[in-house]
């Protein structure tokens, strides 16, 4: 059965490029980016892992760990990491799960038997899972094997989810941190006036914009420190 948003993701133990790994123990109380790759030594995957390696510190700033998966074995992973570091000028510091029997891939629905370019389901598609500190699935994306993922977009989604959790807002299309956000219709005007001291602009009764509250909070903290 496919994992749905809000589901507690299944735990697993498996071998990885950095030794045995247990999903829950690895992520502990952090967020987790968990993403799959069709196979080792493939060109698109090589660029994706390189791009992610360069963004690890950005994920860490957001209390988010990184974990990759490929259907090849540990020795292949270790050798592939050397190629990634060389060709992408990076340092892959996160583990890559070895899943030659496709057990984790099946558990997380990463095998799409009708997907082209995955050898009739022998390889995984490009799945992405954002998992929160309570082990709940908060975002999932599925890309075809032919298309490399945009990992800065994944960071944008993580920023949006974390902002919504903390400040009871939602974010509009193409939102970037620091830009105005939307007050959800479930919050009435009177309550909104108390929650959002910077005020809000009403375009329609259901469409109200307010400044990014995380920016306002950071500015207030800076003023207090001075």
Write a concise keyword list for the protein shown above.
226 residues; alpha+beta; 5-stranded mixed sheet; 3-stranded antiparallel sheet; 10 strands
Helix content: 25-40%
Order of helices and strands: EEHEHHEHEHEEHEHEEH
Query: With helices defined by DSSP (H or I, 4 residues minimum), what is the helix count?
Result: 8
Mean of all residue-level pLDDT scores = 91
Biggest sheet record: 5 strands, mixed
Proportion of residues in β-strands? 15-25%
Q: Helix and strand layout, with pairings?
A:
Elements: E1 13-14, E2 21-22, H1 23-27, E3 31-37, H2 43-54, H3 56-61, E4 64-70, H4 74-88, E5 96-98, H5 103-107, E6 126-131, E7 137-143, H6 151-167, E8 181-183, H7 189-195, E9 201-204, E10 207-210, H8 213-225
Parallel strand pairs: 3-4, 4-5
Antiparallel strand pairs: 1-2, 3-6, 6-7, 8-10, 9-10
Please give a structural write-up.
- The protein has 226 residues and is an alpha+beta fold.
- Helices cover 35% and strands 20% of the residues.
- It has eight helices and ten strands.
- The protein has helices at 23-27, 43-54, 56-61, 74-88, 103-107, 151-167, 189-195, 213-225; strands at 13-14, 21-22, 31-37, 64-70, 96-98, 126-131, 137-143, 181-183, 201-204, 207-210.
- The strands form three sheets. A five-stranded mixed β-sheet has the order 5-4-3-6-7. A three-stranded antiparallel β-sheet has the order 8-10-9, with no helix packed on it.
- Helix 4 (74-88) links the parallel strand 4 and strand 5 (96-98).
- Helix 2 (43-54) crosses helix 4.
- The radius of gyration is 20 Å and the shape is elongated.
- The model is unreliable at 222-226 (pLDDT under 50).
């Amino acid at each position: 059965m496919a994992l749905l948003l809000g589901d507690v993701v299944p735990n697993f133990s498996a071998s990885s490029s950095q030794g045995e790994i247990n999903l829950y123990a690895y992520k502990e109380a952090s967020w987790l980016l968990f993403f799959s790759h069709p196979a080792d030594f493939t060109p698109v995957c090589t660029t994706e892992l390189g791009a992610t390696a360069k963004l690890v510190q950005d994920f860490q700033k957001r209390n988010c760990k990184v974990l990759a998966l490929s259907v090849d074995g540990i020795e292949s992973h270790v050798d592939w990491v050397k190629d990634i570091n060389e060709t992408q000028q990076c340092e892959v510091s996160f583990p890559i799960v070895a899943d030659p029997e496709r057990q984790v891939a099946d558990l997380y629905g990463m095998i799409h038997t009708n997907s082209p370019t995955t050898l009739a389901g022998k390889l995984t598609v490009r799945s992405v899972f954002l998992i929160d500190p309570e082990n709940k699935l908060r975002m999932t994306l599925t890309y075809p094997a032919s298309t490399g993922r945009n990992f800065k977009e994944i960071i944008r989604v993580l920023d949006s989810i974390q902002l919504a959790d903390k400040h009871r807002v939602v974010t509009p299309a193409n939102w970037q941190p620091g830009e105005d956000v939307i007050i959800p219709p479930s919050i009435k005007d009177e309550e909104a006036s108390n929650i959002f001291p910077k005020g809000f602009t009403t375009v329609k009764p259901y469409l109200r914009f307010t400044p990014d509250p995380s920016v306002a909070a950071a500015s207030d903290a800076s003023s207090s420190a001075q």
